Amino acid sequence: AFFKLPSDSFKYLGWCDIEEHDVRGNQLHCPRVREGPSEEELFFRGEEHTLKKRKQVTDTEKWQKKLQENWENCAELNLSFQDLGDLYQLENFKRILQRLIRVEKLWLVDNSLTDLSALRLPRCRELNVNKNHFTSFKQLPKIPQIQHLSLAENNIMTLSGISDFRHTPLESLILKRNPCAFQERYRQLVFSSLPNLKMLDGIPKLPEDCSPPDIRAFFKMCTIL
């Protein structure tokens, strides 16, 4: 016998706001950023047939919705794999990031992000931005309290700007599968720029990592990624 997948019955339905519930944004472990386009956006995209009658939203209702999200009190958040295909999704995504003033652990894996330099995360201790499109350390957010930073599988070409983290409590850094990780004396260069760093790419600081970057050692090292 042929059975339809459970999702078939929902494939043509749209998302709706769930009214009269007590769930807040900081209680969600992996929320999805999916605020739809405005009526003007739909019109210019030629999708006005999808418009539905919408009640007029008052300023009080907008404020109540903002309080319901409660991003300001979120301490740990996973916003990975958001599939930000449209501009309105990216803008709403960044709007949420700007409200994360108390977040301590944040995951933003595989979101095609290119520049978050305008963002400040004052309490963030752990940030994972693996599998994005960053090309420079200058494109990262301001993270003065960062301890663990993961940047694997981006497109960071050089170590220029890494010394900006010298005055942070950064303990561990992951840069594997970035072009900068393949340059000569890579580990010595990183540890000379960040003397307080304890671990790089999952490997603790070794005695040979403390060698000055301008002195050639009498051994050869092969970094296996």
Describe it for me?
The protein has 225 residues and is an alpha/beta fold. It has four helices and seven strands. Strands 1-2-3-4-5-6-7 form a seven-stranded mixed sheet, with helices on one face. Strand 1, helix 3 (87-98) and strand 2 (105-107) form a beta-alpha-beta unit. The longest helix has 12 residues, at 87-98. The N and C termini lie far apart (48 Å). The model is unreliable at 1-15 and 215-220 (pLDDT under 50).
Mean pLDDT: 81
Q: Write out the strand line-up for the largest beta sheet, numbering strands in chain order.
A: 1-2-3-4-5-6-7
Query: Element order, helices and strands?
Result: HHEHEEEEHEE
Overall outline? elongated
Helix content range of the residues, please? 10-25%
Q: Give the C-alpha Rg.
A: 22 Å
Give the biggest sheet: 7 strands, mixed
Number of helical elements: 4
Uncertain runs are 1-15, 215-220
Work out the strand percent. 5-15%
> Which structural category do the helix and sheet elements fall into?
alpha/beta
Euclidean distance between termini CA atoms:
48 Å
Number of strands: 7
